[in-house]
Amino acid sequence: MAPEAVERMKERVRELTRRSAGRSLAQMGKPLGVYLSGWKAYFRLAETPGTFADIDGWVRHRLRAVQLKHWKRGRVGCQLPPLVA
Question: Among 5, 9, 16, 38, which residue has the least CB neighbours within 10 Å?
Answer without folding.
Answer: 38
